[in-house]
Amino acid sequence: MIALLTRRARAQWPLLLSLLAVLTLGATLLGTCALLVTHTSERAVEVAASRADPDDVEVTAYTVTIAAADARSVAADTRTVLTSAIAPFSATTSTRASSNMRTLPSHTDEDRGLLSEVYLSGVDGLRDQARLIAGRWPEKSGDTVLFDNTARLLGLKVGSRVHLGAELGRDPAPPMNVTVVGLVHPLPDAGWDRDPLGGTGYDPDPKDAVYAQDVNAYGPFLVTLDDLLASGSALDRLEVTARPDLSAPTGPALDRLRASVNGADRRLGGVLGDRVSIERVASPLPKTLFDDRSQQELTAGSVLALALIGILLTAIALALAGRLTTGVRAEESALLTALGTSRGQAALAAAVEAAALAALAAALAVPASSVLHSLLTHMQPLAGAGLAARPAVTGVQVLAVGCGAVALALLHVGLAVRPVAAGGERRGRRELLARSGADLLLFALAAVGWWQLRAQPAGAGSRADAVRVLAPALLLTAGTALTLRLLPPLLRRAEGLAGQARGLVLPLAGFQAARRPQAYAAGLLIGLACAAATFGTAFGSTWTVSQHEQADLSVGTDLALTLDAPPVTGQSAEVAAATGGVISPVADRNVAVGQWLGGSGASPRLVAMDTRHAADLLRGRGSDSVADGLTPASAVTGPLLPAGSTPTITGTATRDTPVLVTPRLLLQDDAGLRTACSGPPIVLDGRPHRVPGCVTVAGLRLVAVALPFSGGWEGQPNSGIDITMTLPGADSSPGSAAEPVTWSARAASAEAGQLTAPAVTAAGNRLRFRADVQFADPADLSRVLVATTFPDPGPMPLVVAERFATDVSARAGTKLSLTFGLTPINAVVSRIVPAIPSAPGSPAALADVDTLSRVLVAHGDFDSPVTGWWAGHARSADGLHLGKITTRTGETARLVGSPLRSSLPAVLKVLVAAAVALLLGGVVLHVAYDVQLRALEVARLRGLGMSRRDIRAALLGEHAAVLLPLIVAGALVGAIATWAVAPLLIRSDTGAAPVPPATAHWPWGAFGILAAVLILGAGLAVAIVVTVQARRADAAHLRVAS
Amino acid sequence: MTAPLLTVSGVHRSFGAVRALRDISFEVEPGTMVALVGRSGSGKTTLLNVIGGLDRPDSGTVTVDGVDVTALDEDGLSQLRRERVSYVFQTFGLIPVLSAAENVGVPLRLARVDRPDRERRVELLLDLVGLAGHARQRPGELSGGQQQRVAIARALAASPRLLIADEPTGQLDAETGLAVMGLIRGVVESEGVTALVSTHDPVMMALADRVIHIADGRLTT
């Protein structure tokens, strides 16, 4: 037998070579995909972790209320717990601690109930978090540095010696003295938001102001951390942050790290015991690593789904090659059978041959897949994602290659021992029935797969399930099988038309195409390969476009800046200069809708931006018209104040005891940003009082004034108030605004009834405020006079997302009561849209930031709602250290080029290339075999007087009549599969359905190139084969036949 | 005396070391049926291929109806076979996917005959060979004798001057073979066609006007 096989192999080496090529290609595909879903996939997790934003992997332990005696040990133990949780990764730690409040005797007036308090802070790496303005950094015990504005407010300078009083609270630490050795300015984005006063240096109304009626808090008094821990001060808060070094992680180590950090909170509690009142370890690291793993599994599932298509194509190609082999060997098989060879012996011979082919294919495929994988990783997008790798051989890869080669070889054995229908021309009824049944089963499975994909929940888990892996291959195969059923009637129709021609070429081509039994495997291979190539091309485009759309809607604009601290006056100019585009202040906060604070893990959000520039600012699908109807009819204007001017207030009160007012001025800059400036408490004693430090930059307009009155319990319950505010150098012309400045006054809380008859009049550069105030209600907010240059805007129009509308059962026209911060807002739903830019998938609402500000101001809430900035057509934001910057392009690059996702576009390229190669190979195999079988027929046509040219034309026409419809039908199947399945296969980076929903995208250019390659390639292949065969078909064939 | 329709003069043809034809020369008068007789491998098919322009001699000339076949290029040879020479093959040579009528119509389509004329001619020829009732059947649905009769009808479709039949009865039983030879004999007489038929059946030879023997590539009579 071995001798027979060897001799046959020598004689039929081209045939065996084609079988080996198909086997090797399939096994190589398997090996490459195995490397992608194991080696590269694991590497992607490691690279993603190593590239993670330091903020996303830091681990912070927060502890609260620590006795002075425990301060050092708590700090040390906390550091130990964190570093042990992060081990074996090395970590850098930084500590930030703040003491309890102490009194500041020099600024305390107990007679008037005025208390000034301060606190000490020790910060590791202070030099990286603040800029030294004067003096030096603290070095020894007793040294302190202050924020420049704190020093200005307290009248301190370098060299000042400050006496700090005893701690407030139980078991107070004794007073102490410190020397100011330097002044610093806090750097933005340096963690000062976690300072007790948020890095502002001063708070006239601190949260712990329970000791006196009027409390001013100042600080921090920055000392060295060692000095603070040794000062004998109790610590109000201590936080230790550890940043692991993940530059060279391994997947298993990352998994252990995630588990370890998750348990760190419990371990910290056990270690610190009752030395602290509250302890907590918080870290985004476990979620970051979990998300990475989820994304890795999601991508691996998609890669498997695409690999399955490739393997299926290979199996069909092998089936075609096997069929051709069987056809070529039909006479030989018949002879061997006639000589007494049993079916078992034939199977054994086929098995030996297949085993040899499988072994050879596996031996070739292992290095080939390693090299192909390495080449892929050196191409975009894998190379850009940092996943370039040298050729490597892994156990999983060898196993996949071996199993694939064996499975394909078994298929070859099955085909070899399968009985061949007589003459190969007419299929038996049983075979036709079996094929029909298989087709029906295929259609049913494809329909179930598609239905299950459609039915998967929007927030489904990220794991690759069987449906996601199988559905694309099932749909493509079922679609191709269906087109193979439709092709014969189409060809018969074409035959009828071709038969009308007078000559022979066209009718002969039509007759042959319509009447010859075409190889099912060849048709399936060509159709499915074209469908797979089309699907791969369109899926890649759809995936990429979806990532862009997700990025667009996620950021909502070209550049988004989330401020670390409330905006300050003059910030607009800074942002505009840095970004160079159209800018808008933006408010983005959670709100309460009635009593509803949100559900399903998402709180309702209100996003407000300058809707006048919506077209320049908003990005994302549907953003063109999302803000329509939200822009207020007229702009707000007010008296223009010259830079550096200082308003003065002169007021009288009819009450017999002093009445104080703490004026707040609302200033609006050119970009529409409104910031409030608080004046000092002013006694209405008929004398002028300055309100300094408000008009710091040019271009500010005064658009509102809030006058909260206080006066204690004693004295008359009522008082008439008459206040005049002088605005030196003010220009009351409306500027670019069309409306003249018109002031109106109201009580911030009219329902409290504590402030009545509010009135405001403007004359020149003076504003006069009058009201009747009662002092019965203890709440200060009930006695606030609000004067604005705009009327109360009424209910604020909102555009709400579908999820928001669903959650609160809102329709267009529904009136809602929102709570923004502590301020109630009446709103009305104007429209419902699929999603709000910057808040995809959230129960979010969009409003105009100007309208929001007006509504808040009308309720006496002068705090800026602004939490960030948006910039359209932005150049960059280099040098803008005001907070976290997110750009649309950056987010797109993150989504598209993420190491955790880049395997998908890479394997799509492989699929398309493999499909094209298999299609062209299948065409060559099929046509060569077909033309060879018909060599005698061609010779006879020559004998009948048909020229070689006409024979070539007839053969080309015949094959074109079969191949072209197959290619077109395959492209249609691929397009339909893309339309039906691709959007369902795309998930967001959290594994949920993407927002906006993915829709099929048609890359017409790529389609054109693909169609040209397929049609020209197939045409060229057919032309070459036909030409060669037509030239060979001569009298020799007639002689042999005779 | 009429000019010969076919003149073969000094034809040699070798395939490597095998000398298939050696100095073959003879003439055939128009309207006669000539039997070319020899054993398998004697060179009959090679000689017929050279005469029909399917093969070229190494030397010598072949003239059919005044046309020097050996001087024709590819297009000229195709035209010769379309207009002057027709073949009947031993294995019938019908195109499997075409019906009997369509097979007969192939030469007429090659000659770009109009559809009505083509259909009339096909009907006439099928009637001539006794297969008028089998026009729509494909070769696989016909017996061997019927297929060969279709092949003869196809060969006559373009009204050739010379009909070349290479062992037309080789795959038929004796009775059917005799009927086919009778049909060829009949069309020679009725259509005035010259027929050159290779065979090694003595019964068939009896139907021919003249018998040419060939052995080892040489004419022996």
TrEMBL record, chain A:
Of the GO CC terms on this record, one is: plasma membrane
Q: What is its main location?
A: membrane
- How does this protein sit in the membrane? Multi-pass membrane protein
Q: Which GO terms describe its molecular function?
A: transmembrane transporter activity
Question: Where is this protein localized, as stated in its record?
Answer: Cell membrane
Annotated protein name in UniProt: ABC3 transporter permease C-terminal domain-containing protein
Q: Which domain of life is it from?
A: Bacteria
The portions of this protein that span the membrane are 303-325, 346-368, 388-411, 432-453, 469-487, 519-540, 910-932, 953-982, 1002-1028
**Protein family (similarity comment):** Belongs to the ABC-4 integral membrane protein family.
* Organism name: Paractinoplanes toevensis
Keywords, comma-separated and alphabetical: Cell membrane, Membrane, Transmembrane, Transmembrane helix
Which PANTHER family does the UniProt record give?
ABC TRANSPORTER PERMEASE YTRF (PTHR30572:SF4), MEMBRANE COMPONENT OF TRANSPORTER-RELATED (PTHR30572)
Q: Where is the ABC3 transporter permease C-terminal domain?
A: 912-1024
From TrEMBL, chain B:
Gene3D superfamilies given in the database record: P-loop containing nucleotide triphosphate hydrolases
Entries under InterPro entries matching the protein: AAA+_ATPase, ABC_transporter-like_ATP-bd, ABC_transporter-like_CS, ABC_transpr_LolD-like, MacB-like_ATP-bd, P-loop_NTPase
Segments forming a coiled coil: none
Q: Which domain of life is it from?
A: Bacteria
Can you name the source organism?
Answer: Paractinoplanes toevensis
- Record keywords: Protease included? no
Pfam families referenced in this protein's UniProt entry, alphabetically: ABC_tran (PF00005)
Query: Is Nucleus tagged as a keyword?
Result: no
PANTHER family, sorted: ABC TRANSPORTER RELATED (PTHR24220:SF685), IMPORT ATP-BINDING PROTEIN (PTHR24220)
UniProt keywords (A-Z) are: ATP-binding, Nucleotide-binding, Transport
Q: Name one GO cellular component term.
A: plasma membrane
Q: What is this protein called?
A: ABC transporter ATP-binding protein
Question: What SMART domains does the entry give?
Answer: AAA
Per its UniProt record, what PROSITE patterns does this chain match?
ABC_TRANSPORTER_1, ABC_TRANSPORTER_2
A GO MF term: ATP hydrolysis activity
Domain (ABC transporter): residue spans on this chain: 6-221
Q: Which SUPFAM superfamilies match?
A: P-loop containing nucleoside triphosphate hydrolases
